[in-house]
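thought: user wants a sequence for this fold. calling inverse folding tool.
action: design(structure=
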């Protein structure tokens, strides 16, 4: 029996971020008679979007809290979280388990997901995510590898047997036939099976996930993933996410802390 392909760390890819249509913002300000010098905001388009939304609520363009940092800090401190929903980022996550994505997709408000389909994709060469708690324990790692290798072998064998069944051979559409076989065989695969998922969320939703999942109470694998996401978002929008402090935990992961919870 072949050794399984084992993944120990998730990968995070920032795929999408927003831009500001500056010409239209200028046209709006000019047409409505507002004067607002936002040039220092241009390196951070999502934050400019958030500030624009907030200032529209009170028609406070050019008035009060002249700097971006002052304005966003006030948003966080006053819990004016709705304006954060205008800033959006999209990520692809790989090297994550089905167990993790079962946790992740519970976060629905402000989030969108597209995940690899086990019905359409052949998992005959699937990878498996080694649970963080097992890492560093060689005997347990080897036992776990044998177990998932057996699960994978059972999956492959079931696909091969079912593809030979007369009722499936009679299905002329090969894609449909394979989909029906794989949807049955995937029941042999464990939650540790690696998957890929595209997750897009607004700033408010990502803050909620950081606060709930970059926590000592969260499952270790998703805590590790969302810490990496948090690091990207801090670089992307330091005024929106820079209030988080990260402290190390005994297992090598981190926990997030902020005074501005549940914005």
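)
observation: tool returned 263 residues.
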């Amino acid at each position: 029996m072949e050794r399984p392909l084992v993944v120990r760390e998730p990968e995070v890819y920032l795929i999408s971020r927003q831009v500001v249509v500056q010409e239209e913002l200028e046209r709006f300000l000019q047409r409505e008679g507002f004067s607002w010098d936002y040039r220092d905001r241009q390196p951070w388009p999502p934050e400019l979007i958030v500030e624009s939304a907030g200032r529209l609520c009170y028609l406070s363009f050019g008035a009060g809290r002249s700097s971006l940092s002052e304005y966003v800090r006030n948003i966080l401190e006053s819990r004016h979280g709705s304006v954060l929903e205008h800033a959006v980022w999209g990520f692809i996550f790989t090297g994550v388990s089905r167990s993790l994505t079962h946790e992740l997709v519970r976060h629905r408000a402000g989030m969108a997901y597209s995940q690899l389909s086990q019905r359409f994709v052949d998992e005959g060469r699937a990878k498996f995510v080694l649970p963080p708690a097992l890492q560093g324990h060689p005997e347990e790692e080897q036992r776990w590898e044998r177990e998932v290798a057996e699960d994978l072998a059972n999956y492959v064998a079931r696909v091969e047997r079912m593809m030979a069944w007369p009722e499936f051979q009679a299905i002329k559409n090969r894609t449909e036939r394979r989909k029906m076989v794989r949807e049955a065989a995937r029941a042999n695969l464990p939650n540790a099976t690696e998957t890929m998922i595209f997750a897009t969320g607004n700033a408010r939703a990502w803050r909620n996930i950081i606060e709930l999942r970059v926590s000592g109470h969260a499952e270790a694998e998703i805590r590790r993933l969302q810490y990496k996401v948090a690091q990207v978002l801090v670089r992307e929008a330091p005024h929106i996410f820079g209030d988080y402090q990260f402290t190390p935990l005994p297992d090598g992961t981190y926990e997030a802390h902020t005074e501005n919870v549940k914005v």
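thought: summarizing for user.
answer: Here is the designed sequence. The chain has two domains: 1-17+88-134+191-263, 19-85.
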